[in-house]
## 1
Amino acid sequence: MESNLVKARATIVWILAILVAFGAVWWIEKQSGKELIARRNAASAGAASPQLPDSTGIAATPAPRALNEQEKAWAAVAWRYFEENTNPETGLAPSVAGFQGTTMWDTASYLLAVLSAHDLGLIEKRGFDLRIAKALVALETMPLYGGQLPNKSYDVGSLDMTDYANQAAPQGVGWSAIDIGRLLVPLNTIVWQHSVHTPAVRRVLARWNTEQLARGGELFGMQHAAGAQPRATQEGRLGYEQYAARTFELMGLDVEGAADWRRHLRLVDVGGVQVCADARDPKRFGAQNYVVSEPYALSGLEFGWTRSARECAWRVYRAQEQRFRSTGVLTAVSEDHVDQAPYFVYNSVWSAGRAWATVNDKGEDAAPLRTLSTKAAFAWHALFRTDYTAQLVAKAATLQEPGRGFQAGLYEEGGKPNRALTANTNAVILESLAYIARGPALQVHRPGERKP
């Protein structure tokens, strides 16, 4: 009897121990869960996008006006790039003079240059229609990556798919959602303002599987390096992401996340100016977060700014003006081709935790190649027309190569010209001058309405 009682007591103690242990585990897990939720909430609160207050002293949007004689002369110089470099058979222009490759970004630049040249009276309607028609035939007939979407790069003569070095890539190297988003700007402008070409634009777009470009509100590109499997990746950082999203919204794609300025916004101090930057860490997410003039300026020139785009654009511009005030160095930075290796750099206001970083596409330092960007100078002047932008454009206007177009910029180190002659530089100059004359490119004009 006593032996059974001892055994029973032992069993009861064992059961109670188990219950206590489970209770302890349950209590710890409950408290840990609360703590984890609290930590997550705290992290979310800490990582919440900052408010974007209105800046004081922001320059008013200038009204359209006729170009003066000097500006007309600048437009003619910029247009020379396309007169000299457009392929007569395919109707496309290369990214860089003497180079036979082009991207969809630079093809968009070419089409926007043609639209601007038409609006400025540099080409007559017959010449305009011929250029647009040829370019649209090229877009309609060129092979697509995987039969889905335009490849990242093509040869302007053969229309074969290539890599960025214009080496043959029969299977293609993927697509860029940001580049395709830019291409949709001139295509929409053509449809709305030059409806005779609408059927051709429809044929171009009918070939594209645009659903591949957006998932869950995000933009997606395709990467296909030699010897590797194709890989879809989220594409775009603050500025570029919202710029491309503007035209994807017109296509009916879900780009809600990409269009949101506040979702990944952080404000960084650059010379006393709180500049809009992307909060995502390049080391974690694998994409650089360059803050450059280009996407902000293009948003204004092509669409007209939303409130958030205008606010961020002003801050990016003001940081550059403030650097000049502090150092005496004329500053207008953007992405640009350069006339020496690595041949393309990002001159940034902010990148990867550093102000005024000049880096290549891998984020590696290229500080000796920091330049005053010709296109950025013209764009900021068109959009704000301040005393400082007048100084920028006066300096940039000296960077001409007679009969060939405008050079890409002026190196800060040594003060020598960056002699790269590019489609994008000369297209943005034409866009900027056309903006002065008639406002944003992507406008709906009533039939018979006279543009300013």
## 2
Amino acid sequence: MNPRAIGLLTLITLGEATIGVFVKLTGGAIPVQTLTFYAMGFAAVFLVLARAAVERRWPRFPRGNVRDTAVIGVLIAAQGAAFNFAMSLVPIANAVIFWSIAPFFVFIFSALFLREPARRSYILIFAVALAGVVMARPFSGGYALGNVVALSTGAIYAAMVTYLRHEGKTETGSDIAWSMLVAALVLSPSLFVAGPGEVTASTTYGSGGPEVPVLLWAAGLGVVSTGVPYFGIAIVLKSISANVYALVDIIVSPVVASLLGFLVFSEVPGEGMVYGGALLLGAGFWLTREMSRDSGNRAVHPCQCATPSVSG
């Protein structure tokens, strides 16, 4: 792996890992669904400008791929809204670890809707993952709702991957900017339902820390946590395979996010979460590796639908 690819992987992983940090730094000044709307809007603007800078022309409207672009946009909106909601309810480690059950939903949906036969090893790995979930005790500690929402995020992602594979489609680097715009439009009613939030307010991190405009955290969630990873993956997958990226990301991103939760907010996951999460992440890595062997370059990560090199 060349140094440029390593650098991009590092940037992507760090960007994805900051989602919970930016959500929590808003301090509840902006309703979480409205916050997600702002984030998708900032991400869409960033992706349009970034693609224009790289391609030296404005991204073209995907006239031949409107339905798929719209469906992916709706699923991105649902996933982002659910994940950010989970982040507002539970420690970062809980959200990212339970989200990591996503590859198992891909396995289930592929068997149900794509009629893909399940190998015996898949069943064994699935049993290990379930043991990890049970050990992590998702219904204890007063975090039941947030943990369940985090688990549901994995199902939404799996639906997106299954849809793309069923349709035999991929989202190109330009199309994903339009899908992100669709996501923002889908979430725009939150401005009227939940309210715009205290967008002119400022929050203070720590005692005696500087006051930071809340809207800056929302922009960080959109650009750093969303726009940069989606844009970066399209570039890094020109140097490495989707399978290699997924195998790295499925372990590294949740670990980095959990570490940020500890460093920034002093969040310490419980013993059951640590051991159960380790089992779940290990099983996810194992399953992803097995499925990658069987299916070549099929997508196994939510962001990969944004890349032109991953086939459905």
## 3
Amino acid sequence: MPNRSRVRSLAAAQLANSIGDGAYYVTSALYFTLVVGLSPTRIGLGLTLAWAVGAVAGVPLGALADRRGPRGASVLLALATAAAVFSFLVIRSYPAFLLAVVAYAVAQCGLAAARQALLAGLVEPERRTSVLARLQAILNAGLAVGAALGGLALQHGTRGGYLAVFALDGAGFVVCALILWRLPAVTPAGRTGAGPRLAVLRDRPYALVTLLNAVLLLRMPLLSLAVPLWIVAHTDAPGWLVSALFVLNTLGVMAFQVRVARGVDDLRTATRSVRRSGVVMLASCAVFAASASAGLGPWGAAAVLVAASVLQLVGEMQQSAGSWQLAFSLAPAHQVGQYQGFFGTGVPLARTVGPLVLTALLVTWGVPGWLLLGALFAVASAAIGPAARWAQATRDATAAPRAAAAR
């Protein structure tokens, strides 16, 4: 299959499951609350537990993709995700809910690692970040379409409407699996050498890079949680601006992520992109803090918030492009799956810890909290470069004896 066709297939698979996911994200909480009858607190605890288990499972599932082949692992995990989503159709109790959401999170985290390993096997190293940028743009487009469909279900407000959303999401993952199965198989790495089976767990430099990236991923709950609470509690801006800023972010990633990622193709350009993102995020946090200034009025505060959101969008795209390249550049070629699974733990970690941290910093502390958060972004992004060079030096030191032994 030509390279262009491979990328188109990866994009089609991404679109197939992202539309259903978009609908699922905007309806699932209300379905479990209003239809199944679970309390929001129990739902939140269940989801936190599920993503914690999923984060841990991502590493061994990624390692399994390395040993058995990422295409087959991706297909099986996509089907497992579909099965978990379809199980939501018949859930009537909290224990069943817990089992279903844990299965969903485990399958999703494993699928993310396996798909990254599949992409690494199908796409040349210098093109991986640009392809991931295209997939991210398509992901956002699919989520936007799915969210609109989910909005129709919310307006309808019936059990049948919610169930239709879950059926759509499950079917999307089945279609995703079928598309991935049509891609060329990638030769599995198998069991190489006498090292530990999960080598990434002993790779301290890579763990440091992953931790710093997780700090930068605290930007993820900003627009969905922190900014809405900030707007309501600390500014005079109109409430509908929350939705407008979310749409701005989604459309911005769709339109510009590929362009921002252009030229990020090695370790040097990746660390530079991440470092710049920290500076931009520091500026964004300062502007967000300024939106609480007295005398701005509703429209003045709205204009400041839009400016801050644009800066946040630029920083997000720069950080994404750099982190994708770092995750691939620093992973051994025969262990991409487990390394991607470990690097991906930053996402559930940010989603779990982020709401607590951001609420304490921004809603409770206000302006000083914004400035502290911006400084945290700047410091973490600046530390990425030395950490990545340490990881690369460690990689070079272990690669030389392996190459000598091969000769």
